[in-house]
Amino acid sequence: MTGAFWRRFLVPGALWLIVFFAIPFGITIAISLGEPTELGGVLYGFNPGNYADALDPLFAPVLLRSVGYAAATAAICLLVGYPVAYCIARYGGRYKHALIAAVLLPFLTNYLVRTYAWVALLADEGLVNRFVGEPIGFLNTPWAVIGGLVYGYLGYMILPIYASLERMDPSLIEAGKDLYGSPRQTFWHVTWPQTRAGVLAGGVLVFLPSVGDFVSAQLLGGPDTYMIGNLIQQQFYGADNWPFGAALTVVLMAFLMIFMIFYLRGSQERREALA
Amino acid sequence: MSGFDRPRFLWAVTGLVYVFLFAPIFVVVLFSFNGAKSLQVLDGLSLRWYEEFWRDESLRESLVASIEIAAITTLAATALGTGLALGTIRSRTRTARGAALFLLIPLVTPEIVAGVSAFVLFAQVGIALSLTTVVLAHITFSISYVTIVVRGRLAAMGSELEEAALDLGATPWQAVRLVTLPALWPAILAAAMIVFALSFDDFVLSFFTTGESPQPLPVRIYSALRFGISPTINAVGTLMLVVSLFFIALAVLLPRLLGRRESGLAVLTGSRTA
């Protein structure tokens, strides 16, 4: 069975992705260079001004905020998710599969419903505040938004770390101890390097959707905590400035693609270094 | 992080994380059975919010619409994605390598970018937004998931079986139909179930590509949330959880029911040992 035979199987899927993925993104780029008309339509042209607007001091903080929130989300997910993955992989025993399934279960609840459940929990008259006593204003703070993102994407961090811990040969840890490594030394010199690929993959899987998220900021935050996703959504629903919305979309996509290229190149270099 | 060799510390952290993960879901499910309208105080148990949901015709239509969208998306994306998996793994040409790389892009594209792109495509070509446009957008974004899952399986399988079939006189098409696809079934089914759950639950893509009525359930939930929270949403959320759970359970269990000894989790992750 030759390459030419198998190549035929590519055709339908590839055509579909070109028509419904590549071409639409091309149209988005074209619109990002256009001008909005009064009717909410688009006048095609070459108007890089939309990109200048996107990086304008008025909107640049929103971009930075999105990246900052997403980075904080990835960091918190790592800090919280690593111990969980480690605990399940090493001490889960025969309950391993059940424990990992339990981590995934919440992610089957609709993201909107899950997020708004936090609104009910964290509201000034909500359950958490009644438990605490005096109301703490949780909602509309950056921490509420980041908390919502952590809640939304924590599973994407735990799974790859768990997978890399499972792949690791447990006798390596024993070897580290036999060589008089303290638990801490054994962790940092043996376990951590073995799971670095999982950590990086988890970081990317959490970071990418977090940057573009708009549900968490919409439900748990306010205008002060809006992210680029909220800004984009407003341009298409309400503000009716499609070219500016398209420019923001292209900026977001370009940023993430550059980020991905660095990530992929880094992981390839690591693979080569190992080989 | 000095606690990494002390199970007690680790179990404490893990326990807290589970509380964090389950608290909101517990609240949603519990308050969906609340007798009163409150989201803060539980006042007896009742099914009134489920009845309310059932009486609301447009909510019911949305539920049906979401199931239809997910079903069609699953069929189309599974077929297209499996084709791409076969093509990219078995054909070792440069086109195939390019396609394999191109396939990764939808996976790393934030949903909002995908939503905007689909939205402007339909607007510029002049296709009115409807459930059909939602399905088109969902298929586009599900293909890559299918390909990744099926490819893991295909790569682990090797091509010896197909070569054996050819040696025994099968045509290439027969080899695919009679040897490759049956061996891939568990992975294909598992991928299909995941796509169903993803599509059924999707909000962002649906939000950008849906028309007026009926709207997919998550979009309906979103508009309901903007007008204040009603306990009916808890009932809807609980029902959606049950539907997603059902399909993910199928994804994990089906490969087993089909008589394979490995666990569904292993099929999904493409690993050979569970």
Can you put this structure into words, describing what you see?
The complex is a heterodimer of chains A (275) and B (274). Chain A is mostly helical and 275 residues long. Chain A has a domain of 186 residues: MetI-like fold (Orthogonal Bundle), CATH 1.10.3720. Chain A is built from 13 helices and two strands, in the order ααββααααααααααα. In chain A, helix 8 packs across helix 10. The longest helix of chain A has 33 residues. Chain A is globular. The two termini of chain A are 31 Å apart. The mean pLDDT of chain A is 87. Chain B is mostly helical. In chain B, 77% of the residues lie in helices and 0% in strands. In chain B, helix 1 packs across helix 11. Classes of the chains: A mainly alpha (275), B mainly alpha (274). Chains A and B meet through helix 1, helix 2, helix 4, helix 5 and helix 6 of A and helix 1, helix 3, helix 4, helix 5 and helix 6 of B.
End-to-end distance of chain B, in Å? 29 Å
What is the H/E order of chain B?
Answer: HHHHHHHHHHHH
Q: What is the number of helical segments of chain A per DSSP (H or I, 4+ residues)?
A: 13
Task: Please outline the major beta sheet of chain A.
Answer: 2 strands, antiparallel
Q: How many domains make up the 3D coordinates of chain B?
A: 1
Report the count of strand segments of chain B: 0
Round the mean pLDDT of chain B to the nearest integer and report it: 85
- CATH top level label of the domain at 55-240 in chain A: Mainly Alpha
Largest sheet of chain B: none
- Largest interface, Cβ cutoff 8 Å: A-B, 89 and 94 residues
CATH superfamily of the domain at 55-240 in chain A: MetI-like
The CATH architecture classification of the domain at 55-240 in chain A is Orthogonal Bundle
CATH class category name of chain B: Mainly Alpha
**CATH fold topology of chain B:** MetI-like fold
Helix content of chain A: over 70%
Query: What coarse outline of chain B follows from CA principal-axis ratios?
Result: globular
Strand content of chain B: under 5%
